[in-house]
Write a structure and sequence with these properties.
Elements lengths: L2 H10 L10 H19 L5 E2 L2 E2 H12 L1 H14 L15 H10 L12
Antiparallel strand pairs: 1-2
């Protein structure tokens, strides 16, 4: 799956928590959201009241992609053979992200799952 195809797939399945997501779909999405957040963060030099434009834009962006990010995470966990409840590892600072990165890096466990 290419970068563009992965982004289109995640946006098309915006709030779909059922089904599966291959590793490329998940990791391309994570890269995309990180790149957009970084690009919007460049606007931190423009003050807007007590905040900066960058913080405001990044906050709006992260709010906009929260649901699709959680949806692709749940689909990826399911594809790797884990339950959706493992998404709660996000609540554990640092270690939770490491645990989820390991879980999401696993190959598909579902027979007939998406191609890697």
């Amino acid at each position: 799956m290419s970068f563009g195809a992965a982004i289109q797939t995640v946006f098309r399945k915006y709030a779909e928590f059922t089904g599966l997501a291959a590793r490329p779909e998940f990791w391309w999405w994570i890269l995309f959201t990180a790149l957009v957040s970084s690009a919007l963060g460049l606007f931190n030099v423009i003050p807007v009241g007590d905040a900066t434009l960058g913080y405001i834009l990044v906050g709006l962006w992260n709010t906009a992609v929260l649901v699709p990010t959680l949806a692709v995470l749940v689909r990826r966990l399911r594809d790797a053979g884990y339950g959706w409840g493992h998404a709660f590892w996000l609540l554990v600072p640092i270690a939770g992200l490491i645990i989820l990165a390991v879980f999401c890096s696993q190959p598909s466990k579902e027979p007939g799952g998406p191609l890697k």
